[in-house]
Design goal:
With 315 residues, this protein is of the alpha/beta class. The protein has one domain: NADP-dependent oxidoreductase domain (TIM Barrel, Alpha-Beta Barrel), CATH 3.20.20.100. Helix 2 crosses helix 3. The radius of gyration is 19 Å and the shape is globular. The chain starts with a strand and ends in a 27-residue tail after the last helix. The chain binds adenosine-2'-5'-diphosphate.
């Protein structure tokens, strides 16, 4: 299994199990299956609403003793309503309680957007805190304190553009260790990849399979289906692999981590086996040619110009 290396020598397995959209009633079994099948990286977030059930899975697996807590990389994310500096530590504490853990391996600021503490999902502009009311570098400083305390071994961000990373870096000496963003052959983000590699920031690819299980409200009309794409299917046939495996291996081959979500036992196993594909030059060219800057997760739902959030991805 390929890994991403951090400055202190820690290593994160490149392929992790995603848990966004994994339903209660299904996610516990999925996490147990994943760990027992060899996954050593599980990606979580408070807002996914399933950390309690994932915690039951961790407890069950770790208490058996065959897989140790320290052998698994566990990530979670700070929700947008806990950006105020006094709210960051309690939010992590809740996540640790839910996941039944003493520490995380990685804690991320989920979005460069802040809500009022009492708002889980905003409905109107007044539900937001502007960047002046909740400066992201203050949230970052609170995250740094958690790292110093050992509550999370590593810290980073998610959904940050080059501009937002630059803004943050101008106010801190501590570079985020990870930026988790949407990445797949239709959205290759080569500039962001080059920027992050120069600054020593790792990337994790979310929605690597196109997140076809998003709610209808989050979907655009006529979305492309990467799993049915002719180039992806022909590369898959050539390597005796599945389209999903080609998409996952594309991320691994670029040196990023990738977190395909599945609650299906067969696909959970299939996805972990993705990194055995060896792309040749022709495959890589065909994949590179697929870029069309297409986002499945547009971020438009958090764009509220009157509160200073007018362009989430700065593009
Ligand atoms: P399921 O959970 O039933 O396996 P993403 O990781 O981009 O968010 O995509 C998740 C979606 O892709 C889910 O609908 C998931 O369904 C499906 N999926 C996961 N693995 C595969 C695979 N190997 N082939 C096809 N679909 C997959």
């Amino acid at each position: 299994m390929k890994t991403l290396k951090f400055k202190n020598g820690d290593q994160m397995a490149a392929i992790g199990l995603g848990t966004w959209k994994s339903k209660p009633g299904e996610v516990k079994a999925a996490v147990i299956t994943a760990l027992e099948s060899g996954y050593r990286h599980i990606d979580c977030a408070a807002v996914y609403g399933n950390e309690k059930e994932i915690g039951e899975a961790f407890n069950e697996v770790f208490s058996k003793g065959t897989i140790k807590r320290e052998d698994v990389w566990i990530t979670s994310k700070l929700w947008n309503n806990a950006h105020l500096k006094q709210d960051v530590a309690p939010a992590l504490e809740q996540t640790l309680n839910d996941l039944q853990l003493d520490y995380l391996d990685l804690y991320l600021i989920h979005w460069p957007v802040a809500f009022k503490p009492e708002v889980s999902m905003p409905e109107k502009p007044v539900d937001y805190l502007s960047p002046e009311e909740a400066p992201v570098h203050e949230t970052w400083n609170a995250m740094l304190a958690l790292k110093k305390e050992g509550k999370s071994k590593h810290i980073g961000v998610s959904n940050f553009s080059i501009k937002k990373l630059d803004d943050l870096l101008s106010k801190t000496d501590e570079v985020p260790e990870m930026n988790q963003v949407e990445l797949h052959p239709l959205l290759q983000q080569n500039e962001l990849l080059a920027y992050c590699s120069k600054k020593g920031i790792h990337l994790t690819a979310y929605s690597p399979l196109g997140s076809g299980d998003r709610s209808e409200g989050m979907k655009q009309e006529n979305e492309p289906n990467m799993l049915e794409n002719d180039s992806i299917k022909s590369i898959a046939n050539k390597h005796n692999a599945s389209p999903g495996q080609v998409l996952i291996n594309w991320s691994v081959s670029r040196g990023t981590a990738v977190i395909p979500k599945s609650t299906n036992e067969g696909r959970i196993k299939e996805n972990l086996a993705s990194d055995s594909i060896d792309f040749d030059k022709e495959d890589l060219k065909q994949l590179a040619d697929m870029d069309q800057q297409y986002r499945y997760v547009t971020g438009k739902f958090f764009e509220v110009p009157e509160k200073g959030y007018d362009n989430i991805y700065d593009e």
